[in-house]
Write a structure and sequence with these properties.
Blueprint (H helix, E strand, L loop, with lengths): L20 H19 L5 E5 L3 H12 L4 H13 L20 E7 L5 E8 L4 H11 L4 E3 H10 L10 H10 L17 E6 L5 E7 L20 E4 L3 E7 L1 H7 L1 H10 L4 H13 L11 E7 L4 E5 L5 E6 L2 E6 L1 E2 L4
Parallel strand pairs: 3-4, 10-13
Antiparallel strand pairs: 1-5, 1-11, 2-3, 2-6, 5-6, 7-8, 8-9, 9-10, 11-12
Helix pairs in contact: 2-3, 3-4, 8-9
């Protein structure tokens, strides 16, 4: 919805021009129509990348209990971080090429505060550590050994995150050691989640184990403010998934929020952000996937990707559903 300016009163000049009853009635009608439109917004609202009904259900439960959007996105993505069947997030994540599971996560609240951890090892729930970075330190990012030290000092338990299945997959990969992200296969994914609580406040979270079999030290877009996630409580929020290198180059999530600030709908903004990637000179977009989801302050939702196969899970009005995204490449 584009922002509109409403004129409530006509200026009365020295000529004594009067505003007729019909003009006032028209103005009042317009205001009532706008109020009616706003009243249709159904809060709370939760959206997340990919098909993650358990995660959105948990976030919805938290919102229904009266807690904040920040609490909801944190607890929602933790479901996927702990899932041994999800090899792209947290516990059971596929390792780097040296066999190390390294995690990235960030979280952002309604006030624009942000916390992130990069290249974190041995901690199952990096999103919780990211929140503590935001709330308990003067910093916004902690990385590597420093992030782990902070987590341990904050009471988190160190544990081996490499499951037997992920280890076997890594050992099989080492036979050829080919490094090539595969579109929509969960070796380069994440869970990003956005929520609006009953007060109309927004928050977002993003967590991932990053590209499978990546080079040691690689960090993608997920924990980087403005790329993997961005929240502006006056406008809306956006989150990204897919090949992080391409999202980083265009600062995709910030771009989407700024486009919404200029009046674009969430859907239009997501499509424009994908356009910035696929229209770059020399792009090889046919070889990788990027997907975005976005919400605005009015509760409108957008989601779009380069290729087919991307989807979004939305929980609203008691309905938890997975929705296939429209996409750019129709070949």
């Amino acid at each position: 919805m584009k922002r509109r300016n409403f004129v409530k009163n006509a200026a009365l000049g020295s000529t004594g021009i009067l505003v007729g009853p019909s003009t006032l009635a028209c103005t009042e009608k317009t205001e009532k129509q706008e109020e009616k439109t706003v009243s249709k917004i159904s809060l709370p609202l939760v959206v997340a990348t990919w098909n993650v009904p358990n995660a959105t259900a948990k976030a919805w439960e938290v919102l229904q209990s009266g807690k904040s959007a920040l609490d909801a996105v944190e607890q929602g993505v933790m479901i996927e971080e702990a899932d041994p069947n999800n090899q792209s997030v947290g516990y059971a994540g596929l390792p780097d090429r040296d066999g190390n599971v390294t995690l990235d996560a960030c979280i952002m609240n309604k006030n624009g505060n942000y916390g992130a951890v990069l290249y974190l090892k041995d901690i199952k729930h990096p999103i919780q550590v990211a929140r503590k970075v935001m709330e308990d330190t003067p910093h916004v990012i902690l990385a590597g050994d420093g992030a782990k030290q902070f987590a341990l000092e904050s009471g988190f338990k160190a544990e081996d995150l490499l499951t037997e299945k992920s280890k076997k997959d890594w050992e099989a990969w080492k036979v050829k050691s080919e490094y090539k992200p595969v579109i929509n296969i969960e070796n380069h994914d994440t869970i990003g989640m956005l929520a609006i609580d009953k007060n109309g406040d927004l928050a977002g979270a993003c967590t991932t184990s990053g590209l499978a079999y990546k080079m040691k030290g690689r960090v993608g877009d997920s924990p980087i403010i403005g790329s993997g996630l961005f929240i502006d409580n006056e406008i809306g929020g956006a989150v990204a998934t897919g090949l992080g290198e391409e999202v980083l180059k265009t600062v995709g999530s910030f771009l989407i929020v700024e486009l919404m600030r200029q009046g674009r709908s969430p859907q239009e903004a997501c499509e424009e952000a994908i356009g910035r990637i696929v229209n770059k000179k020399g792009t090889n977009y046919k070889d990788f996937q990027v997907g975005y989801i976005a919400i605005n302050k009015q509760g409108e939702v957008g989601y779009y990707s380069i290729h087919s196969g991307f989807s979004m899970t939305q929980y609203q009005e008691g309905k938890n559903e997975n929705l296939a995204a429209n996409y750019f490449n129709k070949e």
